[in-house]
Protein 1
Amino acid sequence: MTEIFGVPTQALFGQLLIGLINGSFYALLSLGLAVIFGLLNIINFTHGAQYMMGAFVAYLLLNRFGVGYWWALLVAPIVVGATGALIERTMLARLYKLDHLYGLLLTFGLALMIQGLFRHEYGSAGLPYQIPAQLQGGQNLGFMFLPNYRAWVIIASLAVCLGTWFVIERTKLGAYLRAATENPALVQAFGINVPRMITLTYGFGVSLAALAGVMAAPIYQVSPQMGADLIIVVFAVVVIGGMGSIMGAIVTGFGLGVIEGLTKVFYPEASNTVIFIIMAIVLMIRPAGLFGAAK
Amino acid sequence: MNRTIIAAAVAALAGTAQAQISDGVIKIGVMNDMSGLYADLTGPGSVVAARLAVEDFGAAKKGMKVEIVSADHQNKPDVGSTIARTWYDTDKVDVIVDVPTSSVALAVNQITREKGKAFLVSGAATSDLTGKACSPNTIHWTYDTWMLANGTGSAIVKTGGDTWFFLTADYAFGHALERDTEAVVLKSGGKVLGKVRHPFPGSDFSSFLLQAQSSKAKIIGLANAGGDTINSIKQASEFGIVKGGQNLAGLLVFLTDVKALGLQTAQGLIFTETFYWDQNDATRAFAKRFSAQAPRNNYPTMIHAGVYSAVLHYLKAIEAAKTDDGTKVIAQMKAMPTDDPLFGKGSVRADGRKLHAALLVEVKKPSESTGPWDLYKIRATIPADQAFRPLADGGCPLVK
């Protein structure tokens, strides 16, 4: 069998694929962050908590109302997105004129409070959520056993990411959005309700996090700190990709998932630091990030 | 006349006893993970267990004033050290109890020794606490990595699981558990085909599981705990590892972990514990009382039971020694036999190891379970004299 640095190539394919799967979550989450930052200039530290809320809504839908995974994919993002819109209307909207730091502190505080509430109510060991019946089992690809559910995660996440990119960069609605962030007064003058559009955008970014949460529920335990563990990595992904760049968030999300996956093979001890090392290097060479435009 | 003399004598005695308790209050500090991945198996439940022990000891009736404080060390040795120093130096805490996360426990172990206080470990696992890091101020109460390795490891090798691959949490606890289990596997004639160390805490284990899968080892030993073990088991089932003929050995699994996984995923898992709530009437009664006060009415894990048992024995030792001086109380605790409703009769060895029986348990099938906490079958009981590492093998400087 051929080997690369002592690792059989077959095993390496498996690891690359797993990297892509983890990258799907990074991409979905960093996409939401990038949308919110790019269009609202808010550094949304509540994102991890909103991802966790998505998973919990899926859990509660199943266990309280008997509503399964597929409906949860639709309902949870709407419910969590609505709470996001509420947060934007009642709190964030007051901060737009201030420094970024205020939005960051507010959302960070909210994240801690939300996590604390869920921990108080549900404990830290987490709750089980089964893989939907249609996606149980898996395929033997020869070099690895690929669970059907993981394959679904890659496909769904790619579709959502590209769809979002298309809407924002290539449609009229996206053009309004981008224009509204450049010059809200002018866009308002054309008869477009800018505050409502901004609220909906924040709600949409949040619902992307919730969607990732629903997709993560069958893989990880549904637990209050599931988002806190992930959010720091996702922020690093956004910084590497370039704050606010939609395509940057998607490409670096998948790319860093793969790099992290490879680190787990060659030097597992470094697998949770490698992304930050890359972040430091990228910031030194291209302070605006790989895809970001220097302002 | 006689009566007044006796009364005076009693008062005088009580007076001296009182005088030996520093500032008149015995202050117990419960330090553990209150908010992270170990919060359900230690956390606020340990505070409840300590409170029940103080109640059952009858401190109030005996005129002893006992106070319980608690803190969250966030599984970080630096945070734990700061709390321990503040507690000992300014808050007049006499004893620190619980402290899961071996790296934190080793730090608190050192500080307690410097300050001449007392440390009762229930949550942490590393067998180094009674080995090279043993201290005259520390008792390791509930379980340790050697005991887990010995109980689970040898049982599995005996039933044919003779090739192993370790999935190890990359810190003091994981290393100790891997080392102790590897020794047992090799001694029983098994082989270790490989190991991988994952960051702590982790969330995605699929990459490591894939490495374990390609090693073709019969047994994948999970040298991790809490949320890490839960996610490893869950993802192993997703990747068809057990269906593919490999088996998982959860080296440290707690009641709350099994509850979180659900019997569907956890059934058939074999591991070692030192306490199960459904052993006898006394343990069932305790579980009921505990559950009434615990967050979300959880049932007690072995760590909670250990906190109860340790605090109870600590208070008895203070009563007997008439002092709360850390070094003296620990010496008294070692001198007295232990006896409580949860672990029965036992003893504390010179190296600080508390001895009691261990239980080899198997997780029930969903069809066998009759209630939400009816989770284990007890497969075997390992007697106290075989459950823990022999005194001579630990390398504790205190027993040389």
Protein 2
Amino acid sequence: MERILEVDNLKISFKTQLGRITPLDGVSFSLSKGETLGIVGESGCGKTITAFSIMRLLPKNSFLGEDTRIAFRGKDISTLGKEELQRIRGKSISMVFQEPMTSLNPLYTIGWQISEVYRLHEGLSEEEAMTRSVEMLRLVGIPEPKKRVTEFPHQLSGGMRQRVMIAMALACSPEVLIADEPTTALDVTIQAQVLELMNELKDKFSTATIIITHDLGVIAEMCDRVLVMYAGQIVESGGIFDIFDSPMHPYTKGLINSIPKIEISKKEQRKLNVISGYVPHPSSFPEGCRFRPRCSVAFDRCLEKPPLIDFENGHSVRCWLFERNDR
Amino acid sequence: MMLSPMVEIKNLKKWFPIKSGFRKKSHLKAVDGVDLHIFKGETLGLVGESGCGKTTIGRTLIKIYQPTDGEFLYRGGGSTDDNVDIFSLSESKMRPFRKEIQMVFQDPYASLNPRMTVHDIIAEGLRVHSVGKSKEERKSMISDILEKVGLRPEYMYRYPHEFSGGQRQRIGIARSMILNPALVICDEPVSALDVSVQAQVINLLEDLKHEFELTYLFIAHDLAVVKHICDRISVMYLGKIVETAETDELFNNALHPYTRGLLSSIPVPNPHLRKTGKREIVKGDIPSPVDPPDTCRFVKRCPKAFDRCGKESPSLKEASDGHFVSCFLYGE
Amino acid sequence: MRKFFYKRKLDEIEEKARPIHINSYRQLVWAKFKSHKLAVLGAVMLVAVVIFTLIGPLFIDVGYEDMDFSNLFSPPFTEGHLFGTDELGHDVLVRVMYGGRISLFVGFASAVITTLIGTAVGLFSGFYGGLVDRFLMRFVDVMLSIPMFPILITLTLVFGSGISNIILVLTVFGWMGVSRLVRGLVLSIRETEYVMSAKAMGVRNVRIILRHVLPNVVPIVIVSATLNMSYAILAESSLSYLGLGIQPPMPSWGNMLQRAMNYILGTTTGVNPWWLTVFPGFFIFITVLNVNFLGDGLRDALDPKFVSES
């Protein structure tokens, strides 16, 4: 499978009033054409920063690591200048954000905002761009698209707005779509609609997608492969079935077990397995294995930083429990 | 013979007036005629999506909002046969009941006054209800409750911002539990927490329930959590209850089309149980609760709607033992 | 779309001390304040100015009314007159110092009083809402639509000038902005879950206002007070400049400017006494500027959301 995006040793630091913080510490992964990759983790794990850094949407006080490389179609985009980056954003790599309320400009009509993408990247005239926008709205399932293009964001519901965002993101048939918590702010029934939509479009456009979320249910529904992140690092990665059926890392196991199981009856519900402790703040990540303070099976080796250990079936884990001497 | 319920809510309405035009009075009917009952010792779940009114119910019961109509009959923890309509009481007469009926709030970052120490936050309840005869006694009560909720008592002189979300939620829980309440209204107590922390707080709430013999009204939107913790569940849509049943009965045998759609929409964290393409998707958007028409509230999105649904509004009727549903498909 | 960063060796970034463990809310506020360089500068400069006006005269031999006839319109650095003298031989330096006392006092007093009144009005209005709110806010609207300066002029003509009258007049017209600000804050604080929790607990309204609302309003109010102070100083200067404020021989920065205007284009001796306007004007300028810096810094330091990337 052709690798369309390759992120190598992604390291991001921020300079703040509290000192230097490195919330992302050496994240590497690749995305193949047509694949849906899920990045799952809790707050502070760095998943959103990962997404934003691919598109370089980070604030001024952020710094990229020296050995970091982000390759899109083989070419390193982390060193691109403003102009070239602008050409990629929205056209080859686009993004859908979490908050549909604030991701659309309240002062411009929906039509204007979508057609902006066409005008910018495909050089279409206002009229042509508007026609394409109407088509796009129809494609994402918005009823009466001709009427909707003249409406403003506040006239639309949350679910509709998210569909508009998806329309904008897919307008130029990008090769990579990054969706950052695309349905977190939506109600369950609306979320189901949007996920169905994303699945349909994924097939239609064969876009490689990265879905970032904390919701394991969404991951299970949508993804082919998963990266589990904790405290700025990938702690486990693999195919969707491998991860859910045979999770290896204690954190992954703990996470899966701490979710109440809706598939079993009320009578069968058992006390939830908790992961003790709290998610560490980026300014004070623990030494050695970052999960060690919360891990029920930690041992002395864990005081050292574990590397990511790969297995043949594409399953990788960052844990000394799986150290193999026969490499 | 069923025991009389501890809480009986009859025809609860909460309408918010909206200014529109000179004469025309518009209302946001957040809660529009809700009947509920809660038995002592049970956990009743109240679920629904945004705009359904579940949070408003919680806040109205505790009189943060004044009810527009309805009765809140409360048969106190003392389990006498007399019950009192909390809504008919004046603020000063209601005050003693505030000790028994407590609330746990949703947002751990906004439910604690950032300028008060943990000690003061928890002590406030003690002081208002004159519990504890001396400062020392109160301090030791606070120490005890902090330990019970899993926090170190030494932290009582710290400020909320020094704690994580999960810890703050525990402080909020401590604040409610220290008064030894009978009924605790939990308003989305774990929605704002990380997944790994949610489990901790859910377990804590369950432990406290058993230890203090509490009764919970558990308001939430996450059905997996609700299934785990609740004995019975009421599903709300646009200010009305559409279905109430025991937990397993609701999940296995949901009657109302909205409930069925809701249950079908939930993504299960198990890739073998993927429902993509096989769902009973609920089409359309959640309508606005402003001046809703006098028809079945779900009619525009219902896959099974027929004429009657667009003309009248159904009421909650018992379809089978303990299973209530508000839908013309099921009799009337 | 200006968010770009460049690859750098991580060591090149100035590494500050390992993240400080902030213990109390006060430490956090202090740390944020300290990092705001202009605010610290503002505070230091203001303290310097206050010391200058209060202690300064002890080091000067002349009083503000003393007239040195041998030195009329003397420029700065004349013997015994660092800032020069005016048309009556008054020493400008000592007059700037005494004038500073007046201006700072007037500024401070009006700031405090307007803040107190405005906060009280805003608290009641915002918390109780309903008719009280509507009535108070209409009253504020009325007060705001009264043109201040003509009224000030009229009032000072009727009641006479003098420090207390100026303060009175400035406060009567200065509290409205604060009240609106406070009202807005109170409206949002009222909806927070911690206030709801207090209500649900049975805490009485008065206590809610004092214990929950007020402490959360105070920081913003302090900031508003500092800005109010700079406004009051300028207003006093303007009033004095119009001849309505402090009357000579008592100096104020404003009336010094006013007197100097008569001579600024040249005196009978052909001298352009620029020092008569530059010194008082300069002090007004740095006082107001630094009060503003201080206010900015306080606002940022006290805003709980303003810690970058935390």
